[in-house]
Every structure is written in structure tokens, then in C-alpha cells.
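Researcher: Let's do a round of design. I'm pasting the C-alpha cells now; please hold your answer until I've finished.
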């Protein structure tokens, strides 16, 4: 048994619920990898909502708010999580495009 799982853990999700959870996780990973590979200006709002946990508030939110007029509310929805994640994505993109020594 893994040290991260309690011995008495009982999975109460149905097989369909587990499939949905796995599908959501894979969808996010594939969309994120595709966005990074293609260096898109902004990923989908779905990816933005998932990236929010890594964003730096209020710095990334301010960058995200500056990106909203340029890209529109369909791309960067007026939701704090998406605005912050858009700022984080902008910083990630700068790193991907930076010249390597």
C-alpha cells in the first residue's frame, strides 16, 4: 500500500464517475501540452481555470486584465481564476519564447 493512501480508504465513486474524472484530467493535460507545443497566445478557458492554482495574485490578475481588451471576454472570461491564469500563461509563454544560451 502506498504511503499516500490510508489503509482504510474506500473509493466511493462509481466506475462512470471514475471514467469522467480520468477523462477530465487527460483532457486538461492534452490541451495544456498542445498549447505549450504550439505556443498559443492564450489556451482555452478550461485550461485557464485549471492553471489558476499556480498564478501569482495580484500580479498575474493585473496582466490578465490587460489581456482582456485585446483578446475579448470569450478568451479571457471576466472570472478572477481565468484572469489570473491568463497572466500566468503570459509569463509561461515569455519563458517558452525566450532565447536559450
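Researcher: That's everything. Go ahead.
Model: Designed sequence:
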Amino acid at each position: 500500500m502506498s504511503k499516500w493512501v490510508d489503509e482504510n480508504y474506500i473509493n466511493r465513486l462509481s466506475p462512470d464517475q471514475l471514467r469522467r474524472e480520468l477523462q477530465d484530467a487527460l483532457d486538461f493535460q492534452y490541451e495544456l501540452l498542445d498549447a505549450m507545443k504550439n505556443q498559443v497566445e492564450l489556451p482555452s478557458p478550461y485550461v485557464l481555470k485549471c492553471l489558476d492554482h499556480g498564478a501569482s495574485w495580484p500580479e498575474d490578475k493585473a496582466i490578465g486584465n490587460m489581456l482582456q481588451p485585446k483578446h475579448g471576454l470569450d478568451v479571457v472570461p471576466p472570472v478572477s481564476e481565468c484572469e489570473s491564469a491568463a497572466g500566468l500563461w503570459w509569463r509561461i509563454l515569455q519563458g517558452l519564447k525566450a532565447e536559450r544560451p
